Amino acid sequence: MPSITKHKCGFVGAGSRQCSQEALAHGYCFWHDPNSDKSGIDIKTPLEKYVRNGEVSQGLQLKRARLEQLDLVNRGASSGFDLRGSDLYRASLRGAHLFSIDLSNSSLMKADLSGANLHCANLKQCNLLGTKLKGTRLDNVNIGKQLLQEKRGHKLWKAGHKQEAFDNFQQAEEVYRDLHKAADSQGLFEMAGYCLHKELTMRRYQMPKPSLKRAISKGIDLFCGYGERPFNVVLFAMLFILVCAVAYFLLGITHQGQLLMFTPETLGMEDVNSALACLYFSVVTFTTLGYGDIAPVGLSRFIAAFEAFTGSFTIALFVVVFVKKMTR
Predict the structure, then answer these.
(1) Crossing angle of the two packed helices 189-205 and 212-224, in degrees rounded to 10
(2) Given pLDDT bands bounded at 50, 70 and 90, which one contains residue 258?
(3) Residues 184 and 94 in one domain
(4) How far apart are CA 196 and CA 201, in angstroms?
(5) What is the pTM of this model?
(6) Intra-chain end-to-end CA distance of the chain, in Å
(7) Could you tell me which of 241, 242, 200 has the C-alpha nearest to residue 218?
(8) Is 124 left (phi over 0), alpha (psi -120 to 50) or beta?
């Protein structure tokens, strides 16, 4: 009787390691076959056994799988299990234990992670669109510098596909909003602030370019990072004070009846002293102290009025932003 040759799964994982499981009709094993329906059956325990036995765990095809209370914590190891490139579209992972798991380049689109533990998980370039994160533990989760949709949006924009780019930026905004809300509800205010800033940045990318609305949004980002970067306010204040000081130096101010301004004919210590006086006057004007020992003349008066108004607004904004960050 002729022997039946069994073929191995055609999936090749990290390090060119081929899956050792028996191939099904489509050339892949049950775990790597995208055509294998895993909905409606209990595969939680078999999956835990498969991964813990050291089988190739990248690229798992788990669409719509029921994986409630799944336990994939790699106890006693310095890193979690490697499930990179896996497809968990609409999978139910309610209450799953996924500490330090690597799900980079995977899809968790519309997956239910309510109450799951993703502490220290690697989610770089993971599709998180529509993922349910109610009660999900997100401490020290790594989402990378750019979401999958955000990175894709920038590439499409450079290629001239503006509408497709806008769609991806809109999806990225939604994902950042979900992460922001989830982190905020758990007291992870640093992550919540970062995601809020990225959410508003994605919203700006959807605005027509050029447009006044987009320019105003960009200005607010540079000025205070949408309320999340108080250090930006300090940098703006220092730069604005310096610019106004240069303007006073060129246009002139008076001190005890003496005009202080730039004079090319008498370059030297006199001009240095005038420049320092202008810087001092700029600081006093910006902070609205108004000692009165130095007064603006000519066009300098309009600059002083504008600087005083801007200074009072900037200081008030800094207090609000700083207190907001510190109370977190």
Answers:
(1) 160
(2) confident
(3) no
(4) 9
(5) 0.84
(6) 74
(7) 200
(8) beta
